[in-house]
C-alpha cells in the first residue's frame, strides 16, 4: 500500500525530473526520498522511475501512476478542504454548570468564536449528570442557548 505522502513525493519528483530538486522542495534528504520512491516501487511491484545521470524519467508505469496520483492527491486535498468548511460551519458546543456559565463562559465563548470563526453555543445544566444525559439523548443544544460575542448564556 502507498500513502498520500508518498504520492506527493512521487509527483514532485516527476515534475522536477530530479530526486535532488524534489527532496529540496519537500524538505527531506535525497536518500530519504530515494528510499520512499523505492518503497513505492516495491509495494506496487514495478519500476516507476529510470535513474539517469541527468535526472529521472518516468517509466510507462510511472506515467500511468503520475496521472492517477495527481487526481487522487487533488481529490484528497479537496476532501480535506470540504471537511474543514463543514467543521467551520458547525457550532462549537460547550456544556457547563450554572456557576461556570454565568461567570466565565460569556467571555470565553466570545474569544473562541472570534479565534475559531465558528458559532459558539453553550448549554447550561444544573448537574454534570444532566449535561451528560442531554449529550447522550442528543437534546443538549436548544436554539435559545446560542450565544454571540456579547450575549450571555441562557438557561434552557
TrEMBL record:
<dbReference type="InterPro" id="IPR036388">
    <property type="entry name" value="WH-like_DNA-bd_sf"/>
</dbReference>
<keyword id="KW-0238">DNA-binding</keyword>
<dbReference type="GO" id="GO:0000976">
    <property type="term" value="F:transcription cis-regulatory region binding"/>
</dbReference>
<comment type="similarity">
    <text>Belongs to the LysR transcriptional regulatory family.</text>
</comment>
<keyword id="KW-0805">Transcription regulation</keyword>
<dbReference type="Pfam" id="PF00126">
    <property type="entry name" value="HTH_1"/>
</dbReference>
<dbReference type="InterPro" id="IPR036390">
    <property type="entry name" value="WH_DNA-bd_sf"/>
</dbReference>
<feature type="domain" description="HTH lysR-type">
    <location>
        <begin position="2"/>
        <end position="59"/>
    </location>
</feature>
<dbReference type="GO" id="GO:0003700">
    <property type="term" value="F:DNA-binding transcription factor activity"/>
</dbReference>
<protein>
    <submittedName>
        <fullName>LysR family transcriptional regulator</fullName>
    </submittedName>
</protein>
<dbReference type="InterPro" id="IPR000847">
    <property type="entry name" value="LysR_HTH_N"/>
</dbReference>
<keyword id="KW-0804">Transcription</keyword>
Amino acid at each position: 500500500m502507498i500513502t498520500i505522502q508518498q504520492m506527493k513525493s512521487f509527483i514532485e519528483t516527476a515534475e522536477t525530473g530530479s530526486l535532488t530538486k524534489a527532496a529540496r522542495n519537500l524538505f527531506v534528504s535525497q536518500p530519504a526520498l530515494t528510499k520512499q520512491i523505492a518503497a513505492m516501487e516495491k509495494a506496487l511491484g514495478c519500476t516507476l522511475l529510470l535513474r539517469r545521470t541527468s535526472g529521472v524519467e518516468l517509466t510507462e508505469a510511472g506515467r500511468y501512476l503520475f496521472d492517477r496520483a495527481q487526481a487522487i492527491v487533488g481529490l484528497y486535498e479537496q476532501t480535506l478542504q470540504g471537511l474543514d468548511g463543514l467543521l467551520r460551519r458547525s457550532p462549537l458546543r460547550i456544556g457547563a454548570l450554572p456557576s461556570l456559565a454565568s461567570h466565565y463562559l460569556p467571555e470565553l465563548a466570545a474569544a473562541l468564536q472570534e479565534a475559531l470563526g465558528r458559532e459558539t453555543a453553550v448549554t447550561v445544566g444544573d448537574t454534570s449528570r444532566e449535561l451528560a444525559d442531554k449529550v447522550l439523548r442528543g437534546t443538549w443544544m436548544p436554539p435559545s442557548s446560542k450565544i454571540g460575542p456579547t450575549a450571555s448564556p441562557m438557561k434552557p
